[in-house]
Amino acid sequence: MNFRYCAALLFLWFTATGAVAQIEGSVTDESGNDLNVAVPVMPTPQAMATPAGSTDVLGRQIAEVIAADLKGSGLFKPVGPGGIRAIGNDEVTAPQFEAWAASGAEALVQGYVRANANGELTVGCYLYDVALKSELTRQGYVIAPRDWRRAAHKCADAIYARLSGESPFFDSRIAYIAESGPKNRRIKRLAIMDSDGANHRFITNGQTLALTPRFSPDYKSIVYLSYLGSRPRIFIYDVAAGTQKAGDRKRQPHLLAPVFPGWQDHPLFDGGGRQHGHLPDLCQWWHAAAADQFSRDRHGRQFLSGWKQDRV
Predict the structure, then answer these.
(1) Which of 127, 191, 192, 206 is nearest to 162 (CA)?
(2) Quick check: bond before 81 cis, omega within 30?
(3) Could you identify which of 157, 159, 199, 207 might form a hypothetical disulfide with 168, taking C-beta atoms 3.0 to 4.6 angstroms apart as the criterion?
(4) Phi and psi for 285 in degrees, rounded to 5?
């Protein structure tokens, strides 16, 4: 079976499974317009200094991230936190629905940021239906101050899931290979970032080639392939600790490194719930190599990270 025929089969397979086509939609009100969601600044009972900034500043920043997440989904029309009325702590659980309805809001996101005696923060998140004057969902998160963005993403996840009925994805991290340099001397560095592009950092310095990063099933580690000279090695990066070590397949049998003709090793963790389609046997090795370019975010949502024919 020749290259073109395999390519045609792969294109048809990706199209049939939805990997190529992108479905667009929105959450609308009865008139067919995107749902207006008001996101005011989250108040704090008392402004307190934290390593990440004062709690009153964090209340604005968390609201900004929530609004940006909802807007970035393409399904909602968030308003705020700038340009809309501020709320007090007493309004968090007792919204002034008439005032929000008069402003055109159809859904309302409110919450608070409170500093705890042990140095942690409590972030409350509430979603209301303005027309029905009812609470739709609430969530609370106890976090280290440095994790305030993650609390904002989790709040956006709860709102997105409740209003759209779909699985959320804002509280996710992306591991990828960043390429730079001239075409004949490309530098490939392993990098990670939040789903909205924040907290970006490089894990490798580009002195050695890095390829095919994969998260572990618990998303605490990343396994990737690197070349020291001409010898391929599997490395495991601890996301929380910021440290890495070389993997040993004899002592760590949960690490897999399948090899396909003419392709680089693609290290994986087993038990990750990976799903591969089916193609004719003569194209199976190519399909496996191409399908291995799929990644999953924290919630198991599958996305195409890009084909790269990195030949040996």
Answers:
(1) 127
(2) yes
(3) 157
(4) -65, -35
pLDDT above 60 (res 77): yes
Spatial separation of the C-alpha atoms in residues 191 and 177, rounded to whole Å: 6
Sign of CA dihedral 77, 82, 87, 92: positive
User: Of 70, 307, 292, 301, which is closest to residue 174 (Cα–Cα)?
Assistant: 301
**CA 261/CA 47 separation, integer angstroms:** 61
With beta carbons less than 8 A apart as the criterion, state whether 62 and 148 touch: yes
In single-letter form, the type of residue at position 91 comes to E
SS3 136: strand
Question: Can you give the pLDDT at residue 289?
Answer: 33
CA atoms of 110 and 123, how far apart (whole Å): 11
Q: What is the pLDDT of residues 173-225, one digit of tens each?
A: 888 888 888 988 888 888 988 877 888 889 888 888 888 888 887 778 888 88
Alpha-carbon distance of 273 to 286, in angstroms, equals 20
At residue 188's C-alpha, the angle toward residues 182 and 192, to 5°, is 135
pLDDT higher than threshold 60 for residue 281: no
User: What helix, strand, coil percent values describe the chain, rounded to 5?
Assistant: 25, 30, 45
Residue 248 pLDDT:
57
Position 299 scores a pLDDT of: 47
